[in-house]
Amino acid sequence: MDYIVENNHNNNNNNNTINSQCPTCQRQTFVKQQDQTELIKQLRHELESKDEAMERLRQDMQTLNQKYVAEINRVADVQHEKDMVEHELEELSTRLFEEANGMVAEEKRQRYLLEQELQQTQEHLLAEQNQLQELRERMQMQQQQQQGDIKDPNMARARHDLQQLYNTNCKRASANHHNLYKTSFHKQQRSSQQRPHRGSERATSMPPLPSTMEEEAQQQKNKPMSIDQVQLEAFREFVRSSPNVVFKKLHQFVYMKVCQQEDVEPCLRFGPHSRLSVKKMNEFLSRQPCFIEQHDELSQKTMTINTNAPSAVMARPLWERFSNNHNNNNNAHSLQSQQQQEYHCSACGRPADQQALSYRFRLDEMDEWAAIDQYCRDRLVAVCEFYVFIRNIQKGFYADRDIDDLYTENIRLRLQMFYSRMGALPVVLDGIGLDPGSVGKASPPLDTIPDDASDASMMSTGPQTPITQTPPVLKEEYIAGDNK
């Protein structure tokens, strides 16, 4: 446009020079100038229209771009929600299949137990029927003998006395057989397999001959008492190989598997209302001991159970944590549940008064204290003592002790877990003259332990062995104390 204006200006100058000479040329030049001016205005108007159209198109492009980005974000959110729903559906399906498999396994187990009970009942019924049949045959034989011995009164009197003695022994043997059948059915099965059933043999409830009884008594006296060599060999293999194995792999030994399945896990299973995870407690206590101390009167009055503490929450079962997270939306319900749990044992969940919760424990120094009763404290102490014993073996602190002595210590610690699980440990310790609160550590190894490393308030209840004068080696001890 500037170029056209400049040309028009030049033309005007030229035309002015020419028009000054001719009027006709001046009119023509004027008409041309008007046409050019109108053309310029028209071109400017079209250019402005084009610019406005370009601006509208640019705004439309920005709007479409924003809508496109928003649509992409919405599709991404929908895809994320879809993935979350699929993941939850997969978890629910897995849990459903696990529960179904558990129900099927439980049904099979119940069916197997019922079949075993039915088989035992049938065998017992068969034994009683055989005994009844033999008794009938003997009664018939006695009647025949009585009819034949009428002529000889002395022989009849002797047979009568012998029969009375025999019947008395039969009653005693029958009672013994009934008690033995209830307590040791498997022993009776083995004896019945060794003794084949015949019509001419004596019934199982009949007393043995005196010569047979004397021989069996003599054999029992001469038979040496011994420990199960299979379990002893498994323990010996653990003691021999554990120092060369990483602590995380100790659970691969047969001895550790048996101890965890039969003693440790049942001892940490505090009941149906337990708030502690058996698996997590077992993993933690196997690595290090926990902290247990006794309440004083002031702490008993001021302490409240913090159910929102990290250790308390993570130690609860999965469904209880889920329900607590759901109920946290309602503050009133949360406060009410805390008040209801204030006087419950943190381990077993049983209701108890404030004086019964005389102990408290925590896994780590950063955790909150949790109140427990005497029996749950005995369980935790028993498991901690057992794992202290295991760690000392793995670290080689018991290298100089005899395998029989270590196995005796093992028996003592496993018995302690059993008595703690039964709730009878205080009675057992009181029966042997020991303070139930003094149990707190395993027996010392054959090493010289400095005085500052031992706890005088905690006494071992296991068999003590002499301590040899070897270089001092610190033994790991169970962290427990009774703060009066």
From TrEMBL:
Molecular functions per Gene Ontology: guanyl-nucleotide exchange factor activity
Keyword Coiled coil: yes
Regions that span the bilayer: none
Keyword Iron-sulfur (UniProt): no
Span of the signal peptide: none
Residue spans of biased composition, Low complexity class: 461-472
Chain segments annotated as coiled-coil in the UniProt record: 40-145
GO cellular component: cell tip; Golgi to plasma membrane transport vesicle
InterPro entries: RAB3IL/RAB3IP/Sec2, Sec2_N
Stretches assigned to the GDP/GTP exchange factor Sec2 N-terminal domain: 27-141
Pfam (any one): RAB3A-like_C
Sorted UniProt keywords: Coiled coil
Residue segments, region Disordered: 184-224, 451-472
Any Gene Ontology biological process: exocytosis
UniProt-recorded name of the protein: GDP/GTP exchange factor Sec2 N-terminal domain-containing protein
